[in-house]
Each structure stands twice: as structure tokens, then as C-alpha cells.
Amino acid sequence: xxxxxxxxxxxxxxxxxxxxLLSVAACTAPFRADVSRFQAELPAPAGETFxxxxxxxALAGGLEFALYADIVEDQMEQLxxxxxxxxxxxxxxxxxxxxxxGREQVRDSGFRDPYWSPWYGYHSPYYRPGYGPYRxxxxxxxxxxxxxxxxxxxxxxxxxxxxxxxxxxxxxxGSAQAVSTSNRLQYLVxxxxxxxxxxxxxxxxxxxxxxxxxxxxxxxxxx
Length: 223
Known about the structure:
Elements lengths: L1 H26 L3 E9 L9 E6 L8 H16 L3 E2 L7 E9 L3 E4 L9 E2 L3 E8 L3 E5 L13 E15 L5 E11 L4 H12 L9 E7 L11
Parallel strand pairs: 2-3, 2-4
Antiparallel strand pairs: 1-10, 1-11, 4-9, 5-9, 6-7, 7-8, 9-10
Helix pairs in contact: 2-3
């Protein structure tokens, strides 16, 4: 009886190993964002100043907006532009962000979602003026119809516009969207900003899929 109990304990521990690995793999899936950018002709950084302002008046003055504005400011400064007050800056960077309430996906081996493909992930049926439908995802064995019975996916996005302060001339506009199982703006917005500024300003009218670092989550060890 003692030997049998010992073997059973060993078996349970061996079973827990793949479960732990599955959890780690699912938590560290790469973050993929679709980025669309349009530009007239951004001026060279020399002598140009900027200020990041809320495109949505409801966000103006908020502490959360200020946090994300700092991230955009850092990216602009890395390009060589100099931060200034909104009243004196030569360019205004209008910034907005958000995440929806999520959509529950229920799947089994016999279910096919019309917006889901094991190779391309989640296909959004919604259109954004000038951009068309969006497609997100990748072939992930831990996130497909045959492996996940129920999961909530969230659509997050940011929008950025750069205007001449004095004339209102539009110099740049872009958006970055992603579908993921996270709805934490503190994680989503910085990653979407990273995607927006990858190879900035990019080719006008081109939509790119950009992969950036995954969300870091604590994994509880199974004894």
C-alpha cells in the first residue's frame, strides 16, 4: 500500500508539469498589434516642438491620461523633437486610447466561429473609417477552437494625430489595434504605443502587424 501511494503521488506530480508549462505558454504569448499610419510630411526634428494633448476632452487633465502621455512624449523625444507647452508648441500630438468590454468566445472541437481562424486568429467584423476590417492573431496551439472552450477577448486601440498648432494642418494620423485576453490598459496602452512608433512614421497608407513583448504574469508553482 505504501508503494502504491508513493507511485500515485509521483504520477500526480508528473501530470502537473505539463499543466504548468501550458499555463506559462499561454501567459507569455506575444502581443500583436495592427498599425495603420497616414502622413503628409512630418517636419525634421530640428527646431520643432510638440505637446501631447487629449483628443477626447473627457480625458484631459486625468492622471491616467498623463501616464500614457508621458510614454508618447518619450517616444517623440527619442525621434529628436522637443517637448513644449501646448500654447507654444509648433505641433500638437492628439492622443486617445480605449478597450471594449470584451466578447465571450465559446468553442469546442465541433464549433467554428466565422471570425476565427486557427492560422489568423480573430477577424473583427467591424470597420473603422479609412481602414477596413481588422485581422488579429496567429497560429497558437494554446489559443484555438480545439483547445479553448470559453475565453473572453478584448479589443483595444489607440489613435494619434499630429497637427500644426497655428494652422491646424494635419501632418500625421495613425491607429494601433489589438485583440487579446487582457483588458488592462496599463499593459495594453504602452504596448500599442510601442507598436505605433516602430519604424515611425512608416509608409503612408500601409497597415503592418507588429509583435511586441508579452504581458508578464506571475505563475504559481505547483508542488
